[in-house]
Design a protein that fits this description.
Radius of gyration: 19 Å
Order of helices and strands: HHEHEEHEEHHEEE
Helix content: 40-55%
Number of helices: 6
Number of strands: 8
């Protein structure tokens, strides 16, 4: 792990620990028995959401800190995208548009890495659209694309979106999703690019090496 990465993690450690501690306190408070009537259902749901946030925070941080090299193989991007879509659960208000040809040239990639990158991009897209809109996923030669019909991004967000721990979601975000996507693509010898304008949604492109 290089010095820059260590500095980034160290600078954010206190904030992440504080966030997790707040969520754990919320869990404890919501599960405290109010009396003979038992725990209120709303309290249980709030506790569950807080626990899920703790899990997401720690999972993302562990992924970002991971230093092991990826096992790179020749993979069929069309099969990867179809497998991802078959496992994906979208909010009721999000419509999926899928454009994946029967035959796409093989790429050099790691299957779990690609799935994680797609999970992060699809989740960000749904958040940006506030769970109402169209999510588009396509595969072409050496490229997988994810776009949405959300509000788009400002120049400021575009400049900083891949910075670790930078988020526009306030307390609801941890700022590691896109940083992880960028790292995953770099470790596979590829890269991620984005096009977006305010009011025009966002269009992410995962670019891979040819097999």
């Amino acid at each position: 792990m290089n010095e820059s990465r260590l500095e980034q993690i160290g600078a954010a450690a206190a904030g992440i620990a504080h966030d997790i501690n707040n969520q754990l306190n919320l869990i404890v408070n919501n599960l405290a028995l109010p009396g003979v009537e038992g725990v209120d259902v709303k309290n249980i749901n709030d506790a569950r959401r807080a626990a899920e946030r703790c899990s997401a925070l720690t999972s993302s941080l562990l992924t970002y800190c991971k230093t092991g090299r990826m096992d790179i193989q020749s993979l069929d991007p069309a099969k990867l995208v179809r497998r991802f879509v078959s496992q994906m659960r979208l909010p009721a208000g999000v419509r999926l548009e899928l454009d994946v040809p029967v035959s796409v040239p093989l790429i050099r990639a790691n299957s779990m890495g690609v799935m994680r990158a797609l999970t992060n991009l699809a989740g960000n897209a749904c958040d940006a659209m506030k769970n109402e809109g169209t999510l588009r996923i396509s595969a072409t030669a050496q490229q997988i694309e994810v776009s949405d019909s959300g509000p788009g991004m400002s120049d400021e967000v575009l400049r900083r979106m891949f910075e670790p721990f930078y988020t526009t979601k306030g307390d609801a975000g941890h700022g590691l999703g896109l940083a992880i996507v960028s790292d995953i693509m770099r470790e596979q010898g590829g890269y991620v690019a984005v096009n977006s304008e305010p009011g025009q949604g966002a269009h992410f492109m995962l670019r891979f090496r040819a097999a």
